[in-house]
Specification:
The complex is a heterotrimer of chains A (306), B (814) and C (195). Chain A is α+β, with helices and mostly antiparallel strands and 306 residues long. Helix content of chain A is 22%, strand content 18%. Chain A is globular. Classes of the chains: A alpha+beta (306), B alpha/beta (814), C alpha+beta (195). At the B-C interface, helix 2, helix 11, helix 14, strand 12 and strand 13 of B face strand 1, strand 2, helix 2, helix 3 and strand 4 of C.
């Protein structure tokens, strides 16, 4: 394969070999300014169009959110919250998707070599041909982002349009955003952009406006400008202090040096099963657990005229 | 739009009312966010619903659907009562100084000249006092009790904040807060733009709603300036173009008008449209009407249009009334029509009272549908269960469905809301055997013409003599058609004779055969042809101006004069000479648009003025006979010279709070209502809730339910109700509900929201039911009921635009 | 989206071998990965205008092939034109999804005819369809054209056939449509200006 980008890789799942580190590519970031988002879903559509994925045509469940959740074919969704405070109504609309953490829990958790990589520009990418579909990335993710496809049993999520960024273009969602609520550039520039927005928001009465770039995951390459940064939970349960699950930390941090080969295969499998919550919710006979997405309602073949 | 999309960035205050730009025009709305970011602009949204635009606003105020005139009339009253107007602008650029005759009166909600039996006005009592010199009398002090300023002040003094609150249900403090934002732009160095759309047009008082806002903008001095204007956000990609080209019952291209049947005499027809100035030295541009008209007739009928036959005047059909869409379906219902052609148009989904539309189409002998998509209209005769429950065997209409290309498969130009004509190019062949619209029309025409040549028929002359010199008669190229509407010299176009030396040969301005550079070259002697005078300049001798792609903005205020081409004469902001004071100096030195340097006009835009006219003499509104903008309209409006609030034809109230004692003034007294339709209006006891229909940002009308991506993002029909109404009715998120009007019912999903609140209208609590369009019985999205199953069959008194935005329904859990 | 129990165990067993090795730092593979290839590299770019609302956003359409004789162009991607002064490359959800409009399964491909009372379409040729339309129109015009009113006014109008013109068609289509319909005396004529 001629297009392998070995020199631009910073981290690779389940791999100890150190990547070359001479090249310094610009660290990039996407800045999502919630105060400018009209929730039009252009980014959702542009994402599907660019990446050649289309989700099933679902149904309306009494809210504007559609599709209702992320899926292997929907890598970003708008989350709508109606928030009323002191007689003032706000429609808080957050574009949800991969945050491209500097310290990615998915990558840490992934047991398959090279299935998850982090490029030196900060993008965390799934390499599906190496993906074994175990779902640990789902558990490892503090933002509940990756989804496993039923079609090929592989994990999918936003790539930050790594194919576009590689040739010097902005991601598809960024380019399409009608109001400029999604910006893209170097992480430094995006922080500066955010600082300017915060001045404007404070001047308009949002005293707690702030930038969401959570340190618990080493900062993110997708950041939010929030009107109420003191309460990220208002925005459809955006985690206040996200961090990698202690189980993943244990598994990758402390446990590994203890020569895990000594562990019996059974014990290991049991541990995986514990970490991987979702297989407990199979067969469609139980309600979806926790904050995990509900099972798909419509099979791909049935989507038309459903 | 008087201005254009990018210019919105120059605004200090943006008022979105009667529209929802963030939802329906997101990429244009970007310039609001730019104004906020770079100009510290404040966005104010007034709407029955807390919309996506409201979510971006600095201030939002609710109002009851259909009460915008009351709200804006209240704003006018506030501006006048608090002296928040731009005095010099009002004095010099509006007809505030014009004096009315003593025949004008207004009482109990009705203007002088009303004929109740005909539901119409005789406007003769609304005219100006004409002086001995033949010109209108003015009072620059604006103190004369009969001058427009004083009449206006008196009229709107009734629209107090208390009355506004009672009619609109807007809390008084919220109304006053909006007034403050608006009033801040009366300073000459502050501008407000008004962005509106079908939220104003689709009312029985729609035209007057827009006029009220325009009057407010004039009082503030916000018309003709950068960052100001009255900006109609058109709904379709080329609806501006089709309107400019006159594809309406009563129009000819370029806002020329068809003769009424009373206008048998060509001279009279021309004279009544050639407006003489009402003030000394004023320019009245419609004095050129004969040049535009004769050039059009030469473009259409060539050598068959001669001076002797009055330029083929009798080839034009003459109107006894307007045949708008409501009239058309009324006639169909009565069995008075036989054929109908729907080109890229889906009336079953788009027109009110779906049952009446289906009945109309069922009465036809034939229906031709030309469309890229399988529309509801083309299959109106098929039974789709509850969504279209028809008796197919008993529908005897022949239907011919012809596949047409879409944008991606053709060359041509579209005119956007900012009046830019932009050329586009074909990227791929169409699917199957689909053909371009122009080719389909040409094929039909060529066949009909051949039939007339072969077998004769009734009055074949206009058909057989229609200019048809296209290289491929069955497939005229977009280039040929564009060159035809731009116009060319049929003979040498000569300069006017030199008055000092009348015998000297006249200079040749445009040699015969060349494309015209602009409508300034048009002549009324048959030496020029031009299919649409306002589009003259689009394809000149220098080539296709619409294809230009220079996006530089040399003055930094968003004026990209080298990008595409804008009518008229590439001017981007209409009435822009009003951005300068009466000495020709810009009101706001930071936002210089055009200015007069003592000799000529120039600046960042093509001046809307005779280039050498002194601003001391010629006022900037040269398309009016007055030369100034009209706060009071002495003629031309069907329902009064000043806007007055009337209730929607279906209202949750039983009396008009502004004129409670006069039942005649409950709803628009000059709106046309067909026999039987008045009875089909619901009464508050049966249908207590105010309802309004609208677009969602994820969809475009009834097209994108055929589009996977959009069906995914908004798959299924729903209605929106407030939490309070939901609680009263026991309706929860996602429940199926039945919404009924006096014309039909739909069953759909309920979205319960904080974004729609109950309003207190003088003690009557009014709930609103929001009904998005977009679903139907064809496409890839989930099937749904057409929203127009519910809407009433009545239109605006002036335009007959259906009243989709304010009617009444009832709702219950299904 | 979710796995069933069988898939889970299958995944576990395949995954375990590799992951256990990796845990020990025995990853057998070098540090390599690749992004999806950039799909527009040699596509043909055509400039167009979004056909939905009236903002008139500039769009770039990318099609298969380089317009060589033996390739048939097929549009496979559409995005905003960054040079356009209004949209500057952005597109709303409708514009961003234009590709699915171009290729919608609802696109009509052939002329069709529905006979009175019939419940089906019948595919017909263009010739048959256009001849039919022309004959129906002429017959109705000849039968119902009004040259004069009862009181002798020349009116030359045809009221029994009407037309709705397309607001998404080009100015050139609109212009010729108007010219043709008015030449026949049609007054029942409208477009989407009101709706």
């Amino acid at each position: 394969m001629s297009s392998l980008q070995s020199l631009d890789i910073k981290q690779r799942s389940a791999t100890t070999a150190q990547p070359p580190s001479v090249r310094n590519t610009t660290e990039v970031a996407k800045l999502i300014d919630v105060s400018k988002c009209i929730g039009c879903k252009a980014c959702q559509v542009a994402c599907g169009e660019w990446n050649d994925v289309r989700d099933a045509i679902g149904r309306n469940v009494g809210v504007y959110d559609n599709p209702a959740d992320l899926s292997p074919e929907t890598w970003t969704v708008m989350r709508f919250t109606e928030h009323e405070e002191a007689g003032r109504l706000e429609w808080l609309i957050r574009k949800d998707g991969c945050m491209h953490c500097a310290d990615p829990g998915c990558l840490k958790a992934c047991p398959s070599p090279g299935a998850i990589v982090q490029y030196s520009n900060g993008i965390v990418d799934f390499v599906e041909e190496h993906c074994i579909g175990c779902g640990y990335c789902v558990t490892g993710c503090p933002f509940d982002v990756p989804r496993i496809s039923q079609d090929d049993n592989k994990a999918y999520k936003c790539t930050l349009c790594s194919d576009r960024v590689l040739v010097g273009l902005e991601p598809a969602c960024v380019k399409t955003c009608p109001t400029g609520a999604i910006m893209f550039g170097s992480k430094e520039d995006m922080k500066e952009q955010a600082a300017g927005r915060l001045v404007d928001l404070k001047e308009r009465g949002y005293q707690n406006a702030g930038l969401y770039d959570p340190p618990g995951v080493g900062g993110t390459h997708v950041m939010y400008v929030l009107q109420h940064a003191d309460r990220p939970g208002l925005y459809h349960n955006l985690p206040e202090n996200p961090s990698i699950s202690p189980m993943v930390s244990l598994w990758k941090g402390a446990a590994k040096p203890l020569a895990l080969f000594a562990m019996g295969l059974t014990a290991l499998a049991g541990f995986f099963h514990y970490v991987r919550v979702r297989p407990n919710d199979v067969d469609g006979d139980t309600a979806p657990g926790g904050n995990l997405p509900p099972p798909p309602e419509v099979k791909k073949e049935e989507r038309r005229h459903a | 739009m008087t201005n254009h999309w990018v210019d919105i960035k120059n605004a200090d205050v943006v008022l979105i009312m009667g529209g929802n730009a963030a939802e329906a025009h997101p990429c244009g709305f970007k310039w609001v966010t730019e104004a906020k970011a770079h100009n510290k602009a404040r966005l104010v949204v007034v709407d029955p619903r807390f919309t996506r635009s409201a979510a971006m606003s600095d201030y939002y105020a609710p109002l009851r659907a259909g009460t915008d005139i009351a709200f804006l009339g209240g704003v006018i009253n506030y501006l006048l009562a608090n002296d928040k107007i731009q005095h010099e602008y009002v004095r010099n650029y509006t007809n505030a100084t014009f004096v009315l005759t003593d025949k004008y009166s207004f009482a109990d909600g009705i203007f002088s000249g009303y004929n109740e039996a005909k539901r119409s006005y005789d406007a003769s009592s609304w005219g100006y006092e004409i002086g001995k010199d033949g010109f209108a009398v003015v009072d620059p002090t604006m103190q004369d009790p009969r001058c427009v300023f004083q009449v206006l002040k008196k009229h709107y003094s009734r629209y107090t904040p208390e009355v506004v609150s009672k009619v609109c249900g807007t809390p008084k403090e919220a109304f006053l807060k909006v007034c403050e934002y608006i009033a801040s732009t009366s300073a000459p160095d502050r501008a407000m733009t008004v962005m509106y759309a079908l939220g104003w047009t689709q009312h029985s008082t729609g035209t007057q709603m827009i006029r009220t806002a325009a009057m407010m903008q004039l009082l503030l001095g916000n018309i003709g300036v950068a960052g100001g204007g009255m900006n109609a956000l058109r709904g379709h990609s080329n609806i501006q173009g089709l309107t400019d080209l006159g594809l309406l019952s009563n129009l000819l291209p370029g806002y020329l008008t068809l003769p009424r049947e009373g206008e048998q005499d060509y001279e009279g027809y021309i004279k009544s449209r050639t407006l003489k100035p009402l003030r000394p030295n004023q320019v009245s541009y419609w004095q050129n009407y004969p040049k535009f008209h004769v050039s059009l007739m030469k473009a259409w009928f060539g050598n068959a249009a001669t001076k002797e036959n009055n330029w083929a005047f009798d080839y034009l059909p003459k109107l006894d009334r307007n045949y708008d869409v409501l009239q058309a379906f009324e006639l169909m219902g009565q069995g008075k029509m036989n054929g109908y052609i729907c080109q890229g148009f889906n009336p079953v989904a788009s027109f009110p009272h779906k049952a009446k539309i289906i009945k109309g189409l069922s009465n036809l002998k034939f229906l031709v549908v030309i469309d890229p998509l399988a529309t509801e209209t083309s299959e109106f005769w098929k039974n789709f269960g509850p969504y279209n429950d028809v008796d197919t065997a008993n529908i005897k209409t022949e239907v011919i469905r012809l596949p047409s290309t879409c944008f991606a498969e053709e060359d041509g130009s579209l005119t956007n809301s900012g009046r830019w004509l932009q050329w586009h190019w074909k990227g791929a062949p169409p699917p199957g055997e689909a053909k371009a619209d122009a080719d389909i029309i040409a094929e039909i025409f060529v066949r009909i013409r051949a039939l007339y040549a072969k077998e004769g028929g009734t009055f074949p002359e206009p058909v057989t003599s229609l200019t048809w010199t296209y290289r491929l008669p069955r497939s005229p190229s977009p280039e040929e058609l564009a060159m035809e509407y731009n116009g060319k010299a049929l003979a040498d176009v000569l300069a006017p004779p030199d008055p000092k030396n009348p015998k000297a040969p006249q200079a040749v301005l445009v040699p015969a055969g060349q494309q015209l550079p602009s409508f300034a070259m048009l002549r009324d002697d048959g030496s020029t042809s031009c299919g649409c005078w306002i589009y003259s300049g689009a394809w000149t001798q220098a080539g296709n101006q619409m294809a230009r792609r220079d996006n530089s903005d040399p003055f930094g205020i968003g004026q990209t004069l080298g990008w595409a081409w804008s009518w008229p004469v590439n001017r981007r902001i209409l009435y822009n000479a009003a951005s300068a004071d009466p000495t020709g100096k810009p009101w706001d030195p930071r936002r210089k648009l055009v200015f007069f340097n003592g000799k000529t006009w120039g600046g960042a835009d093509v001046p809307d003025m005779v280039p050498t006219a002194s601003p001391q003499e010629v006022h900037p509104f040269i398309m009016t006979a007055e030369g100034v903008a009209k706060l009071f309209v002495p003629s031309g409006m069907a329902d009064g010279p000043l806007p007055e609030h009337y209730e929607p034809f279906e209202s949750p109230l039983t009396a008009n709070p502004l004129n409670p004692g006069n039942a005649k003034a409950f709803s628009n007294p000059a709106a046309r209502v067909f026999k039987g339709d008045m009875e089909a209006f619901g009464k508050p006891k049966d249908f207590p809730y105010s309802a309004t229909t609208y677009r969602l940002t994820e969809h475009f009308h009834y097209w994108t339910k055929h589009v996977d991506s959009n069906a995914i993002t908004q798959p299924q029909q729903f209605v929106e109700i407030g939490e309070e109404l939901a609680k009263e009715k026991g309706i929860a998120h996602g429940d199926m509900v039945k919404v009924r009007s006096n014309r039909g019912e739909i069953v759909t999903v309920a979205v319960v929201t904080k974004r729609i609140k109950a309003l207190d209208c003088g003690g009557t609590k009014v709930h609103t039911v929001g009904i998005p369009n977009h679903w139907g019985f064809k496409g890839v999205a989930k099937m749904g009921y057409l929203a127009n199953t519910l809407t009433p069959f009545v239109g605006d008194a002036n335009t007959q635009t259906p009243e989709y935005k304010a009617f009444t329904v009832n709702i219950e859990k299904a | 989206m979710d796995m069933n129990r069988r898939q889970f165990f299958k995944a576990c067993t395949t995954g375990l071998g590799a992951s256990s090795l990796a845990m020990l730092g025995f990853s057998p593979q070098p540090v390599l990965a690749e992004t999806r290839s950039f799909k527009l590299a040699k596509a043909t770019e055509t400039r167009n205008t979004c056909p939905y609302c009236s903002v008139g956003c500039g769009i770039l359409m990318y099609s298969l092939g380089d317009r060589a004789k033996n390739a048939t162009a097929e549009i496979f991607h559409i995005e905003g034109d960054p040079d356009h002064p209004v949209n500057r490359g952005t597109l709303c959800p409708k514009g961003a999804g234009l590709l699915d409009f171009v290729h919608s399964e609802s696109r009509l491909k052939y002329p069709e005819y529905r006979a009175p009372g019939s419940s089906d379409w019948k595919r017909i040729s263009w010739n048959e369809a256009l001849d039919k339309v022309a004959k129906l129109m002429k017959a109705d015009r000849d039968a119902n054209f009004v040259k004069q009113t009862a009181d002798g006014k020349t009116v030359n109008r045809w009221l029994t056939t009407g037309m709705l013109a397309a607001s998404a068609s080009s100015n050139e289509s609109g212009y010729i449509t108007h010219k043709v319909m008015r030449s026949m005396g049609v007054l029942v004529f409208d477009n989407q200006a009101r709706v």
